[in-house]
Amino acid sequence: MIGMQYQSYQYYSYENLKELQEIIKVDGIGIMDIDEDEQIIEYQIDRSKCVRLSDLIYMITQNFLRFHLGQLLDLFQKLLKKVMLFQINHIEHSYLDTNRIWLVFENQSPPLSIVYTTIDYKIAFTGYQCQFYEKGSNIISADYQIQKIIKVILNNFKKNNIFFNDSKQNEIKQQIYDPIIQACDKHDIKNTQSVINYIQADFEFQKEQQTISWDIQLENSKVDLVRKQHIDQIQQQLKDYIYALKQETSFTLEFIILTQIQNMAAPLDNPKCKFNKVDKNNEYFKIVKQIQEENQIIQKNHLQKDIQQAVDKALKKMLEYYKFEFSQEEKQELYDGVLERILNLKLMQYFYNSPHYHLEISQENLLERELSLQRQFIQKIANEEVGRLIQLHILILINDLI
Description:
Blueprint: E1 7-13, H1 17-26, E2 31-35, E3 40-46, E4 50-52, H2 53-61, H3 69-88, E5 101-105, E6 121-125, H4 142-159, H5 169-185, H6 189-202, H7 222-228, H8 231-244, H9 250-259, H10 261-269, H11 283-318, H12 328-343, H13 355-360, H14 363-401
Antiparallel strand pairs: 1-3, 2-3, 4-5, 5-6
Helix pairs in contact: 3-4, 3-6, 4-5, 5-6, 11-12, 11-14, 12-14
């Protein structure tokens, strides 16, 4: 996407390695690395060439990106076709949402921009076999879920008055949005595809221009001419964010950019608004960092009690067979070692796959979800760490006897 010159990282658990390996042969994105020990697949994604669907929708609703109505219909068709093709090839994605759907630009396609542009892309999915740890859910078929996603997008646009052509709001709502929503409610993916096909034909979808007859004609768009004058400034703003936050995680960078999109969009259509200065001493950066640090402290405090109980339980069981005595200092090292391993589990990075988790779910609920997942590993890791300490004492004892 325009100005997004950075790498982001995604972490997902998996259940069946062989099946996952076959899936990513036909539906891979970025650089993929599988950690078989932790059963995690890690994606490294070039954000200059890929955009997450949730980000795309958010930036459209914030009046930042320009997108044709024809492009939206074409996007829906691509989503439906991908799911239908995978059904034919017996590939199922039971945990699909807008954070796991990516537009991957192809053939040197220009990036999405603050002005209208035609784009060439394919759709890629991530998160196969990985449940929604941030919110919990049942297994849902991809054909059902993709229609739900389309419906949610359109309802979101209706709520935020996003109609792509203000002079045709009522017509677009009644003749495009509502018929597609009603089709999605029937949960028949072929019928939904047919409805969109009909709308594209009825409103003269132009494949090369990616427009329909109700899209704004660019030669008459004074707004787009003004926006073109700001392209360099927007690119510089994004470069400044990336540079100022180069020592932070990609999640922190994405979160700050996404939450500042509205401020960046304001000067595009209102000459009275000015672009904010961006540097590493930005007050908003400090606030975000402070909140993150406070959440980490709260998380550690919650875990420490559980870890102490788990370690003490493991020690008590082990000492039924081994007559060793451990100092309080050794016990504290055990507590600290277990805590460090828990915090460094790759699966915990899942909660930082997308800023939208933190924008749409309360921090309290998200923290509880993360703690709940971490607690599943505490006793196992405590047993391992206690076992290592016992083995160390056995080796020391043997060495003393030699």
